[in-house]
Design brief:
Elements lengths: L2 E7 L18 H14 L4 E6 L28 E5 L10 H7 L2 E9 L1 H14 L3 E10 L3 E2 L5 E2 L1 H12 L5 E3 L1 H5 L4
Parallel strand pairs: 1-2, 1-4, 2-3, 4-5, 5-8
Antiparallel strand pairs: 6-7
Helix pairs in contact: 3-4
């Protein structure tokens, strides 16, 4: 039987660190919590991915408190967890095999950050043959200094990344839309 899994990417305390700069979508955590709650209510698979940075100054390195999950996304003992050191949830992990073993053919993806790990994992999931829905208001990112010296606003980066993924690698939906879909 085909199952739809909720893939929760990098919902870690380290993303609250000022190190990252200004962020968009302050409601992302609340929306992730709503989705996790629905998946748990229907006993559907919730899969957590944690970024374990190997960079010395990163708030996400394994030895830091920032590596811990945010309160809204703490895994239950029955939920599968994967650790990664790169942007893709599929590189250096057993995620693809796990999903196939559990007959999970569709993924709903949420987490941080839209333009890095969420985007990379969404692209790979699609390229590996999974049906992907990406939740626009359960993801977020930060302002970024461009190669051209221009400071790009987090909301603009967020929307541009969602736009480039939608229709090619996934279907972009809101939390409300996915909560109203039958699972």
């Amino acid at each position: 039987m085909n199952k739809i899994g909720l893939l929760v990417i990098d919902m870690q305390k380290g993303f609250d660190d000022p190190y990252w700069g200004k962020r968009n979508n302050p409601s992302a955590e609340q929306n992730v919590a709503l989705l996790i709650s629905k998946w748990r209510k229907y006993n559907l698979p919730v899969i957590h991915v944690k970024h374990c940075s190997i960079e010395e100054k990163s708030p996400l390195r394994t030895s830091s408190k920032g590596n811990q999950y945010k309160e809204e996304a703490i895994p239950l003992s029955t939920e599968k967890e994967f650790s990664k050191t790169v942007n893709s949830a599929f590189i250096g992990t057993n995620l693809e095999n796990y999903l196939k073993e559990k007959n999970i053919e569709s993924l709903v993806i949420v987490g941080l950050t839209t333009d890095h790990c969420v985007s990379t994992s969404t692209r790979m999931a699609s390229n590996l043959g999974f049906n992907v829905k990406l939740i626009s208001d359960a993801t977020a990112t930060f302002d970024r200094m461009g190669y051209d010296g221009v400071l790009y606003d987090a909301e603009e980066i967020h929307k541009i990344n969602l736009t480039s993924l939608n229709g090619e690698f996934c279907t972009v939906l809101t939390t409300e839309e996915i909560l109203n879909e039958p699972l």
